[in-house]
Amino acid sequence: MITNLHIKNIGIIDDINISLEDGFNVLTGETGAGKSLIIDSLLLLSGGRFSKEMMRNGEIYSLIEACIYLPNNEFSEDGNIIVSREIYENGRNLCKINGRMVTVSQLKKFMQNIIDIHGQSDNQKLMQQANHINYIDKYYGEELLKVKEEYAKLYKKYEEINSELNKNYGDDKQKQLKLDLLYYQLNEINNSNLKIGEDEELLKSQKIFQNSEKIVTNLSKIDSLLNDKILNSLDSVMNLFGKINIYDEKYNNFLDRVNNAYYDMQDLSYTISDNFSNIDYDDSKFEEVQNRLDLIYNLKRKYGNTIEDILDYKTKLEAEIKEIENLDDYILSLKNDLKQVKLEMNKLSIQLHNMRVESSAILEKNITKELKDLEMLNAEFKVEVKFISDEIYNKNGLDRVEFLISTNTGEEFKPLVKIASGGELSRIMLAIKSVFCEIDDTPIMIFDEIDTGISGVAASSVAVKMRKMSKIHQIICVTHLATIAANADHNYFISKSVENGKTFSNVKVLSEDETLTEIARISTGSVSKIALEHAMALRKSLVRWCRKFILNI
Predict the structure, then answer these.
(1) Nearest Cα residue to 341 out of 393, 381, 306
(2) pTM (two decimals)
(3) How remote is the C-alpha of 484 from its chain's centroid?
(4) What's the whole-number average pLDDT of the chain?
């Protein structure tokens, strides 16, 4: 559940904090006061798209953050998770989950299993036919999902085999041209006799060749200094210490140190002399190094950035040549593999189909019952499960699943997307969510004016359904209906004010008396004694009805 929501610089919202509770939370208030901005903020926090128009006028960034309590979660020992999204006018996003920076897509993936936001006109998963099969599979339970997982492994193999079969090497002439190219590349790499690390050694040699004159000049100077000055000077120092070492033992130690230095310098002199004799700066050898480096550079340009990459490419060439030369046998083997995989996929597809048909019958009955509870007495819900027998496999098998509805006696069943009435659609969606809420592990459900187009007994039924759902999920609902506000566990009033020429949105947690006043206001538009008495009666009757309804379920 969301325990605290902080919104800054969204529309007319300057800086507000909302403490939310478990159960059924209802937001009411003046038109244009910012109720929808709160839902928009939650959409942004769930990874939704942001437009500059959403930012408060004159500000350079917007911030939405929430403290979400999820007991036994993997991210926090005490169950509290802080999620935030900061958006700047230049489009830069700073998203965090418990202080760790994440991308917008990572935030969206994280939040999609925590918050489900449903509005009157949004493009919800339930309205997309492609998602219906996932709902019915989840409704059946673990047994079907295990079969589906087994099928998914086969489907992946099926796609891999088809990908191999779809490789087009053309006719015999084209195959030969392809082989000629592959053999040319392979021979070019083989003839180069590449060795890992040789390019680095060649570059060292190149550097020495390019700086040979500088090296010779400086070595010559060093050799001259050693022999003409340093060694002679050290010899003189040793002689001088030799004249005084008999007087104090410490001079013997000094003499030993100078003696060691003399022999070190002498050894260095011999080494430099040997180095002179071994240095060979033949132009032909330099040209050989250059040519070898040019060859390796050319191969890198064609086949990889490193010698290791080139040798890996060589392995791939050999495999592809072998594959083409044995193509007929290879294709036959692939076709046999595909045939076997399809037999196994078909078997699992039939098993999945039978499970889905079984699941659909139960789902149809339960959703139709929910619709009748919502005063759609003649409505019937149907799940159409079609088995596609022409072996057009997809990730779900061979079934096409779609939710259909008939809202009046004698009318044909139609897809959900073709329901015209906003009031009917609101109740249908709520009925479906009521059935699925027990298997839906999304802890927070948000409804933005889902009550549009309904009133009377139907509105009371919607209120009862939402309160029932709040026993499993935290419900946050924006409404204009007194019957829904009267049934809430916690009521919040959204208002706006003008200060210094700027509009501000405000949120207030209502006491019981304030809740009755708000119910009276949205019932009649005024807060009279009669309206207050009606609000009190409505609140008491709905609570009693809801308790009786839930206990009887």
Answers:
(1) 393
(2) 0.62
(3) 36
(4) 85
